[in-house]
Amino acid sequence: MEFSSSQSEIMGNLFVRLKVSLSRGRLLFTGFLSRLMDLGVSMLLMLTLWPLWLGHFVLAKIKGRTWLVRHEYLGRQARPIHLAEAAPLPDGFLASLLNHPLIAKSPFIWAVWRGDLSLVGPAPLTREAAARLPTRFLRRLDARPGLIHSFFIKSRTNIAFSTEAETAVADVEEAHWKTDLGKAARAVPAALMGTDPEAKADAGPTLAMFGLTMTNLTLDEALDEILATCRAGRKERLAFVNPDCINISLRNPDYRRILEASDHIYPDGIGLQIACKMLRLQMKDNLNGTDLFPALCARINGDDLGIYLLGAAPGVVDAMVENLLEKWPNLRICGYRHGFIKPEELDQVIREINDSGAHMLFVAMGVPRQETWIDTNWSRLEVNMAMGVGGLFDFMSGRIPRAPIWMRELGMEWLYRLIQEPRRLWKRYVIGNVIFLINVVRFGKKGAPRAGKS
């Protein structure tokens, strides 16, 4: 059966209209499910929290204080909304509990019930803060603000490596009831076990654990320090330490001596964050090479600072370089080489690194071999900054995929890696993590014996 051109045009228009109608239907249904989730969860939270609110109300009245204060924020499409939070109470044990930021802002849940907030969305924004934002970030106002937002989860789990504004736009782009439900679930452990951002701001510049002095910085502060070192022409060694590194340092005096001689030791991983919680220390960020390196590449893309990549198996570093230049075409990679170096090749490799003009050397040979290599050859190397980066090259080459963000937010990246390489990593994670926690209790702040001492 053949159709005339006019009939074909009519059929085509009907097909387009049908697609548009189905698309609108899906959006409406998704919106309905999201709103249903908002109502259900907010009702459950209100039923759970009413005793706390009642206690706050009674204590406020006894002290002659206002119970709630209201602040104006911008809702969807920049519509003004007013959110209530509990007013601060005078000093006292009960007051300190009720003044906790998470409890003080819990009346925001009422706004979820009213429809001014969503359960999950970009953080509520004041008019003054919106006026300071570049136009590209105002897309966050296309959606209702959220009681829970990704930046809250990331900042409390020490992986907030993007700005709040960038994360807010991502919340809008990722909005879906399934995604939102996952974020809401991840917010629970982040709220209960994560680090308070306000406490992090007051944290000291160092962390003293296991007899080591670790540099306590945010990712941006660490990048500033690295770049300042290179531009000033100084020479510094940097080491990342995770629970496995701590365990090795407690049984390997040579490795421990190398750590003690490093200019900076960065705390890496959920294990160090748990140790800080146990020892009542405030760790600013989870500083690991896998997150720091791409952020550094973004900073120096098009800069005169150059890098040299040394390590991993043959072919891995080549694939890594291809990926790096595809993402950062103006990144100055001065040289690269796999990590299988014969004794007779050592002089040539060091000469290649020095002649390359690189400012930073990244060595991926595994702990403690990479730190030992840097330490042994440090006096001959002419780079400004050298650091061991473990499995970074495998991740950046694509040989081993990185854990999805939701697992990292839950502090479960170690489990993802264990599933990927169970034979190689079971001892490190299954047994090693238990040994690490024992070492936290055993040594903690008082420290382990110094290198070379029993």
From TrEMBL:
Would the keyword Secreted turn up in this protein's UniProt record?
no
Q: Short name of one Pfam family for this protein? A: Glyco_tran_WecG
**Entry keywords, A to Z:** Glycosyltransferase, Membrane, Transferase, Transmembrane, Transmembrane helix
- Any GO molecular function: hexosyltransferase activity
Q: Membrane spanning segments where?
A: 39-60
Keyword S-adenosyl-L-methionine found? no
Q: Which domain of life is it from?
A: Bacteria
Q: Which CDD domains match?
A: Glyco_transf_WecG_TagA (cd06533)
Q: What NCBIfam families does the record point to?
A: wecG_tagA_cpsF
The protein's name in its UniProt record: WecB/TagA/CpsF family glycosyltransferase
Organism of origin: Acanthopleuribacter pedis
